[in-house]
Amino acid sequence: MAQTHDAYYVPHGSHWPIVGSLGLFSTAIGAANWMNGGSGLTTSPLFFLGLAIIAFMMFGWFGTVIRESVAGNYNKQVDVSFRMGMMWFIFSEVMFFGAFFGALFYARMFSVPWIGGEGHGALTNYYLWQDYMPSWPTNGPGNIGGNFETIPAWHLPLVNTLLLLSSGVTITFAHHALRAGYRRALLVWLAATIALGAAFLYFQATEYMEAYHQLNLTLGSGIYGSTFFMLTGFHGAHVTLGTIMLTVMWFRCAKGHFTKDNHFGFEAVAWYWHFVDVVWLGLFVFVYVL
Amino acid sequence: MAHAAVHDTHDTHDHKPQGFLHRWLFTTNHKDIGTLYLVFALVMFFTGGSMAMIIRAELFEPGMQLVQPEFFNQMTTIHALIMIFGAVMPAFVGLGNWMIPMQIGAPDMALPRMNNWSFWILPFAFLLLLSTLFMPGAGPQGGWTLYPPLSLQGGNSIAFVILAIHMMGISSIMGAINIIATILNMRAPGMDLLKMPIFSWSWLITAFLLIAVMPVLAGAVTMLLTDKYFGTSFFNAAGGGDPVMFQHIFWFFGHPEVYIMILPAFGIVSEIIPTFSRKPLFGYQAMVYALASIAFLSFIVWAHHMFTVGMPLGGEIYFMYATMLIAIPTGVKVFNWVTTMWEGSLTFETPMLFAIAFVILFTIGGFSGLMLAIVPADFQYQDTYFVVAHFHYVLVTGAIFAIMAAAYYWLPKWSGNMYSERWGKIHFWMSVISVNVLFFPQHFLGLAGMPRRIPDYNIAFADFNMISSIGGFWFGASQLLFVGVIVHAVFFSKNRATMQVWEGARGLEWTVPSPAPYHTFSVPPVIDDSMLAHGDVTH
């Protein structure tokens, strides 16, 4: 690092972006055909091929970056650019969740009371849904998806909250171990974080099974089911991704890719993990408790 | 902030890569990627433009003559999507790619490979979007805003459109992240933020808008997708949802989006007017603060797009006054452009002509925007040609004129050759006259009650529609001149550009040769305050 510190670093060209574009393109075509109920190679096979291409691209692209980083090609300025990139990527993810939280708040604050006749919704209610008593949770005046029950907040969701909060602590311990140069402690704490993430996902899957099989709470259960499963589902997808990233970091730590002062890959994943943690707190409060 | 002392590009890649495919597909060079963006935007401009020609041809006379109503609706829908996401936004990103590193003294963008991906997603996204035109169930017909339930009642194409929008969003977010990282991290030593050229400033603020709202659009269209295919009830009142909720989420994206399409134009015009007035920009800091204020206000005015949808009165009044507030920082900008020209020693080269036309015509678009902001009046104007006239004044004579001004202004720096001033001026005068013939009568049509997105109309609207269509064909044909001037300048012009290009031009980009070398700054540029475009910065 030291010898290149004062130079601009411009990476050489790369074929990975175009590979990634082809992957996205295949995924999109496959997904659209699949959703439209088509059959044949251009539906789910193309979708999974696209995902495989994207995974291949990520291995290749990250691999290139890791090799360049380990070879000491990067300087402080590149490091700061990476940090800003990750930071603003996470911010964009926050805004993505914001759209779904917005939908939840809008439904609870406005659309459900209006359907129930509040404010300027009085006539709508009178002519269309006189019998509808607005409440939350609801699947609307059409009783879309049939009667359902909700997941009690203080059982599995509470356990999951404790799991994710503890994982935030363990990854911080791992980070401290990394900065102190204790690789063994680092690996143990990181493994603990991965285990906590995996446990969270296991319980979340259990909860979904219970919702579908015992509570009749599905994605099709009106606005409650929509907001519940889309919010927790996208969060779960992010936890899955985060757990995969943590696992990659575990192997990179085991291989000794990181030094006390230079371990941005690890930090980026830690930021991401804290981000899914915070989103979960929002979910716990606004989806489960309130 | 810009802490890296720069000495050299110690890299093995000082030279242009060999081989056509290798260079353009794998490139990490901001100039190559900027060129790709600009060429792509031009191709999309003509693609979307031909759809506009079909629209104007059908509307030439009352009655149905050329196309089926379904096809007409596809034209209005896809014309908008292409012009917004395929022409205007990529053109601005292309200009940003070319100019931001040169203006702030950086060797390239902060994340060059991601920059490549940002671009190379786009051709695939638009292939996906355009392919819907040829599908059995036809393309999207519900308007670019994709309002449910209408947008979900069409054919299979909506899934392709939504996934294409997701791809465009990924591209935009990565592009915006790159621009923020570049401006905050790659400025040459001494290039303080408040010394930065105003075009770079406008892009910094635009990039924040993009990162904040493109994910919200992604969320909105994802909800559409699950409502159509996975049984959710976000926009279904029977399930407790609300179609109006889509409009709120969509316009939370959509209103900042319209500023995404105009703030870089403000930046461009703020570069060009000082150059050809041979004066520093009047009120540089006020211009920066006005940009920031407009960006902030853009987040809290979205519902003025939906006054007639049935909102509580308090909401209507709040959104009306909040919207009118935007006139204040915008007024500051217009005032400062005019004051920059005041007592300047003006010359009227093509970029300056486009910039002056921008100031006048964009202001007309702004005024019709103020009329639309008045709730009771909007009940009359909503969904009429008045709205169409309004947003085409801000987008065509606003954003597109600024992009053309930028193309003429910086083309000599990019290509090393001067364009033909004579043909540039012919292009300008043809464009500026025809665009007013095209869009000005649409104000009258709208005030008289002609609805938008309708292939047939009352015979009372015949005359103005015919005038508008003639203006449309004239404007469309005039843009062929633009291509001609560019092709001539890049490939055939013998008139070599100097380093300075324009007598009154200030800024780092004018200190490097024309054409700019493949890697602009291999040694740190010396930031000489007198060379910056805004010499009134005193600190």
List keywords for this structure.
heterodimer, A: 290 residues, mainly alpha, 8 helices, globular, disordered N terminus, B: 539 residues, 65% helix
Low-confidence stretches of chain B: 1-14
Q: Describe the global form of chain A.
A: globular
Estimate the mean pLDDT confidence of chain A: 94
Which structural class matches the secondary elements of chain A? Answer: mainly alpha
Rg on CA atoms of chain B, Å: 23 Å
| Biggest β-sheet description of chain A | none
Rg of chain A (CA only): 23 Å
Structural class of chain B: mainly alpha
Strand content of chain A: under 5%
Task: Calculate the terminal CA-CA distance of chain A, rounded to whole Å.
Answer: 51 Å
- Elements of chain A, N to C (H/E): HHHHHHHH
Strand content of chain B: under 5%
Considering DSSP H and I runs of 4 or more, what fraction of the residues of chain A is helical? over 70%
> What gross morphology of chain B would you assign?
globular
How many E-type strands of chain B?
A: 0
Order of helices and strands of chain B: HHHHHHHHHHHHHHHH
